[in-house]
Amino acid sequence: MKSKKRRLVIAILGGLTAIGPFAIDIYLPAIPRIAIDLETGIPQVMLTLASYFIGVSLGQLLYGPLLDRFGRKLPIMAGLGIFIIGTIGCAFSPSINWLIGCRFVMALGACVGVVGGRAVVRDIFPRSETARIFSVLMLFLGVAPVLAPSVGGAIVTMADWRWVFGVLFILGCLLLAAVAALIPESSKPDREVSLHPAQVLRNYWIVAKNPVFLSYATASGAAQAVLYSYLAGSPF
Predict the structure, then answer these.
(1) Are 92 and 100 in contact (CB under 8 A)?
(2) pLDDT recorded at residue 68
(3) Per-residue pLDDT tens for 62-102?
(4) What pTM was computed for the model?
(5) How far is C-alpha 215 from the chain's CA centre?
(6) How far is C-alpha 57 from the chain's CA centre?
């Protein structure tokens, strides 16, 4: 892979990794306006944050087997399509319950970037380089939720809160086009991978019992919990 295309591919994978965390926090400065516009309270609007986290958690478990069964590119593009549909629903939400549901849909689509991006890195880059590239993706992952509230605040000062989701719609479309045009299919579909729920759960149970996995997952989860707790409360 030529160096210019290589950098472009890494940038796209970084965008895929960042879009989920970015979408979590970009609308936080708009929460008071959303509450007024939809005639509800801030605690009810905060449920949109909870529904997003539920969607992200469940979605990652679903995309793992799908990425193995159908290859990398198709599930990633499908996930981005779901994300785009969710942003449209959020932008035109007539009620708080509708917004809560559409945020869940957004999350189901957005989380494909974290899972799919890392899978593509392992597929197309030499093992000796994956650690360095993962560190670059983690930079995107860390910067996105820090910048997102500032971007959202700027949008809210200039336009209606619904434009926050309009910006996410544009970003989702750009990412979808970039993946379709520039990201190679890095893993052939494997029809032998079972999508039966029982088999999928057995596979996850094997991973969950691995002490090395548990150690890293606990440390990472604790760090992310502190970060997102701060970001969720900081606008107020």
Answers:
(1) no
(2) 87
(3) 898 898 888 889 999 999 999 999 999 999 999 999 999 99
(4) 0.89
(5) 23
(6) 10
> Please, are residues 167 and 52 in contact by the beta-carbon 8 Å criterion?
no
Tokens, residue 163: 């434009």
Burial of 222 (0-12, 13-18, 19+ CB in 10 A): exposed
Phi, psi of 209 (to 5 degrees): -85, -5
Burial 87-103 (b: 16+ CB within 10 A, else e): bbbbbebeebeebbbbb
Q: How far apart are CA 47 and CA 97, in angstroms?
A: 9
* Euclidean distance between CA atoms 196 and 194, whole angstroms: 5
Instruction: Indicate whether 235 pLDDT > 70.
Output: no
Per-residue pLDDT, 1: 59
166 burial level (CB within 10 Å; 0-12, 13-18, 19+): middle
Helices then strands, each counted (H, E), the chain? 10, 0
Contacts of 216 (CB under 8 A, 6+ apart): none
Closest CA to 142 of 48, 216, 52, 230: 230
